[in-house]
Design a protein that fits this description.
Blueprint (H helix, E strand, L loop, with lengths): L2 E6 L16 H18 L3 E6 L5 H7 L8 E6 L7 E4 L15 E4 L16 H7 L7 E5 L14 H11 L4 E4 L2 H4 L11 H24 L6 H5 L14 E4 L20 E8 L2 E8 L14 H19 L6 H12 L12 E2 L23 E3 L14 E3 L1 E4 L2 H10 L1 H18 L7 E3 L16 E6 L1
Parallel strand pairs: 2-6, 4-5, 6-7
Antiparallel strand pairs: 1-16, 2-3, 3-4, 8-9, 9-10, 10-13, 11-12, 12-14, 14-15
Helix pairs in contact: 3-4, 8-9, 10-11
């Protein structure tokens, strides 16, 4: 029977890429062509993509354009192959030419910040009509979240209202987010080799940052001092930087404060940029003897069962496995109410931290080659035992995709091999050949953060 133990472990140093892989412009043109084909099959005449600072991943995936300060609206004729229109406000006007996908830039100042000039653009109904959205038009709207009822639009009401009025009673305006993010067949849920290489760059940086925090953590430093050790490199964040200790750590997702970190504190941190996210949680102690009274059995009660569940999840991971099998791998081991599992046992990762998830009880949805998946399984015990976390990103690739990655991205392939070897030979988790660990911390769970040289590993 497999068990886990806290043992001395030296993390390998696979290194980090010298530069961020740049996606070729042709890739964005291909993405637009694929979306147009999907939209035609659905019966749409036009696709409208809405984005703001918080929900920009769909537009950024499609065009390479990332709106700053304000919103943006893309309109594409699905029947043709011409450049789509991009409606932007005053602040974004100047950065549209930086996008790798050619687009017709149209000023629509109502997208601008409050009290900025609004004297040089046409009203939205006129702009929509110029782009072919008129009585009888069938419009698929992409924001960021699909719903079972496609009548539900999660874009601003005033935009939805103008679109509905333009299409009229004989037209159709509906939620089309599933075309991109459905875990069954969404275009954005399977990644090209170039995108996976970019995600590995991101995973390297966030995992190295979290590793620096854990190795540099000291009682007496403030949360803000600790968070600087992440070394954020200026890449767009996929979630706000999280680092808390003590009572605030139990809320999970708060930003750091000026509170000094104390011996015996619970601790959690998360660092996510586009394509990569690494999280860890544990206790600011050297060993179990320094844990608070009443939770001295933290290893046996929480950390070890959790680690065994993640090891089983990683062992089951591969192309073609169903989401239900992965869910069962977790719930069979830590399904007791004490562990407080209440969301999916893992999810897809992309420019946004959470794209969608094929993983749920009884799910028959298979993992597909090219998916990037996050080992996001967090026990929300709500108890004095706090939590544990070993969250990193993994890619799933069949033999053909693996061969292409090895040929085109040899540095990435070398680092993946080092991580796989560490998981197999040191941690004791023998991954399926389909599984490519993207983070330099993959498999590393030090529960006592003041002694990061000891981590959990499987033992026969």
């Amino acid at each position: 029977m497999t068990r886990a133990a806290l043992v001395p472990i030296a993390l390998p140093d696979p290194g980090v890429p010298e530069a961020e892989p740049v996606l070729p412009a042709a890739l964005y043109r291909d993405r637009l062509a694929r979306l147009r084909a999907r939209a035609r099959a659905r019966g749409y005449d036009r696709i409208v993509v809405y984005a703001d600072r918080e929900h920009s991943a769909n537009l950024a995936w499609l065009t390479g354009f990332d709106p700053r300060f304000e919103e943006a609206i893309l309109i594409a004729d699905v029947a043709g192959d011409g450049d789509p229109a991009l409606l932007v406000g005053n602040e974004c006007w100047g950065i549209v030419p930086a996008a790798p996908l050619p687009m017709r830039r149209i000023l629509f100042q109502e997208l601008s910040l409050p009290d900025q000039p609004r004297d040089r653009s046409d009203p939205l109904p006129r702009l929509l009509a110029a782009e072919g959205i008129v009585e009888g038009t069938r419009v698929g709207v992409i924001g960021w979240k699909p719903y079972a009822d496609r009548a539900w639009l999660e874009i601003p009401a005033w935009v939805a209202g103008v679109l509905g009025a333009a299409a009229g009673p004989t037209g159709r305006v509906e939620n089309a987010n599933d075309l991109l993010v459905s875990p069954a067949d969404g275009l954005r849920t399977v990644n090209e080799p170039e995108q996976l290489a970019a995600f590995e760059w991101a995973a390297c940086h966030v995992s190295e940052g979290v590793k620096r925090v854990i190795h540099g953590l000291r009682p007496g430093m403030t949360e803000r001092e600790a968070v600087t050790l992440l070394g954020w490199n200026g890449a767009p964040l996929s979630c706000h930087l999280m680092l808390t200790a003590g009572p605030r750590a139990r809320f999970g997702m708060l930003s750091p404060s000026d509170r000094p970190i104390a011996l015996g504190d619970p601790f959690t941190t998360a660092y996510g940029i586009w394509g990569g996210l690494t999280c860890r949680a544990g206790w600011v102690v050297r060993d179990a003897a320094e844990l608070p009274e009443g939770v001295g059995d933290y290893l046996e009660r929480l950390a070890i069962p959790y680690f065994l569940a993640i090891a089983a999840w990683l062992g089951a991971l591969r192309v073609g496995v169903s989401g239900g099998v992965l869910d069962a791998a977790i719930r069979e081991r830590i399904g007791d109410p004490f562990f407080g599992l209440f969301i999916n046992a893992g999810h897809l990762l992309h420019l946004d931290e959470w794209v969608a998830s094929p993983i749920a009880p009884g799910s028959s949805l298979p993992l597909r080659s090219g998916m990037a998946i996050q080992s996001d399984v967090i026990p929300a015990t709500g108890s004095p035992w706090f939590t544990s976390n070993i969250e990193d990103g993994y890619a799933i690739a069949d033999a053909e995709l693996r061969a292409e990655l090895a040929d085109r991205f040899p540095g990435m392939w070398r680092r993946v091999g080092i991580r796989r070897g560490f998981l197999r030979d040191t941690i004791g988790i023998d991954l399926h050949p389909d599984v490519l660990p993207l983070a330099n911390t993959a498999g590393w769970l030090p529960p006592f953060l003041l002694d990061p040289g000891k981590a959990l590993a499987l033992r026969p």
